[in-house]
Amino acid sequence: MSVRLRRRRPKRGGTDMRSKLALAALAFAAAIWAAPALAADLPAIALYAPGVLPAATAAERTDNGLLHNVSQPSLTPVLPAPGKANGQAVIVAPGGGFLVLSWENEGMAVARRLADAGVTAFVLKYRLGPTPTEPAAFTKFFGGKMAELSAMAARRGPLPPPFPTEGLAAADAAEAVKLVRRRAAEWQVDPHRVGFVGFSAGAFAASSIATGDPAGRPDFVGIIYGALRNSVPKDAPPAFIATAADDPLVKAYAAPMFQAWKAAGRPAELHIYERGGHGFGMGQEGATSDHWFDEFLWWIQDLKPRS
Predict the structure, then answer these.
(1) CB neighbours of 302 closer than 8 A, spacing ≥ 6?
(2) pLDDT of 159 strictly over 90
(3) 218 CA to centre of own chain
(4) How much of the chain, in percent, has pLDDT values that exceed 90?
(5) Residues 6 or more apart whose Cβ sits within 8 Å of residue 163
(6) What does DSSP say about strands 74-78 and 120-125: parallel, antiparallel, or unpaired?
(7) Can you list the alpha helix ranges (DSSP code H) found in 155-200?
(8) How far apart, in whole angstroms, are the C-alpha atoms of residue 305 and residue 184?
(9) CA 146, CA 156: separation in Å to the nearest integer?
(10) Which is it for the CA torsion 199, 200, 202, 204, positive or negative?
(11) Cα distance between the two ends of the chain
């Protein structure tokens, strides 16, 4: 997810593990208010995916690179310079715990880098659960949710149950794939080279559509600090899976996900970086996780169109 969660070195003393996790999650939630400023909006295309829109308890809003209270999904194109498009497309799904979208760090910044490389990019704004509008109330609410997830991950148990709007996010993601294919000629895109990359919550959506209804399946998928809920079909798209070994939320799910792809006989590549925490996105942390984008780009450049 777009707000950063990093593992801190334990200190000697009397704070128990649960308290440490809660404090780390609250610090993580507070830190997001220092996120980069939101990029200028580009023309967005409304998506109409199956499912009931959640009741809007508050208007959609933007704060420091984060989107809140999204009830109308959309797709924002970020196109390569004229004459530079290589026919490949990637839809980008930011993270944020299904409660916010890290629009800049895991959305627009990724799309711009893709477009610079000749890839036609689209940033997905998917439906979210409602959150408080006042910053202090939001920080407390979000920090509590992240503390719950951190404690669950520390117990090394199974994945948490689906988030309330997780199914809606997956529906929006599948509809985005269909829309790009329908309008492929308009954007100089090969309809058999439409990929999807998601981060955290967006990575849950990515793995869901990659293993779901073939009509909404991308031709390749990037799952960046995410997890897999479904079995992997024999015709699943190639997968690029990346996480950090010090991620307190989802590090345990990367290797089993890779193994599930390989067991299905499908191409997959796995990167587990020593450092990066949760939510490294396009940030520069002085770690090898800083280079995940380059490796993802090399990987998609090596892919062959699906038959």
Answers:
(1) none
(2) no
(3) 15
(4) 61
(5) 97, 98, 129, 201, 204
(6) antiparallel
(7) 166-182
(8) 15
(9) 15
(10) positive
(11) 33
Both tokens of 136, joined, read 């202090």
CB neighbours of residue 58 within 10 Å: 12
Q: Which two tokens stand for residue 4?
A: 């950063």
The answer to whether residues 123 and 92 touch, using CB atoms and an 8 Å cutoff, is: yes
CA–CA dist 119, 300 (Å, integer) = 10
**Which amino acid would we find at residue 47?**
L
Residue from 140, 122, 121 nearest 131 by CA:
140
Q: What CA–CA distance (Å, rounded) separates 43 from 22? A: 39
The answer to whether residues 179 and 120 touch, using CB atoms and an 8 Å cutoff, is: no
Rama region for 188: left / alpha / beta (φ>0; ψ in -120 to 50; rest):
left
Q: Tokens 């509008």: give the residue.
A: 133
The band of 83, judged by pLDDT with boundaries at 50, 70 and 90, is: very high
The helix (H) or strand (E) run that includes residue 202 is helix 201-210
pTM: predicted TM-score of the whole model, two decimal places:
0.84
Q: Using CA atoms, how far apart are residues 299 and 291, in angstroms rounded to an integer?
A: 13
- Angle at the Cα of 258 from the Cα atoms of 256 and 259, rounded to 5 degrees: 60
How many angstroms separate the CA atoms of 147 and 133, rounded?
20
Burial zone of 13 (CB within 10 Å; 0-12 exposed, 13-18 middle, 19+ buried): exposed
Q: What pLDDT digit, counting tens, does each position of 41-54 carry?
A: 458 999 986 665 65
On whether the CB atoms of residues 71 and 56 are closer than 8 A, the answer is yes
Exposure class string for 203-218: b at 16+ Cβ within 10 A, else e: bbbbbbbbbbeeebbb
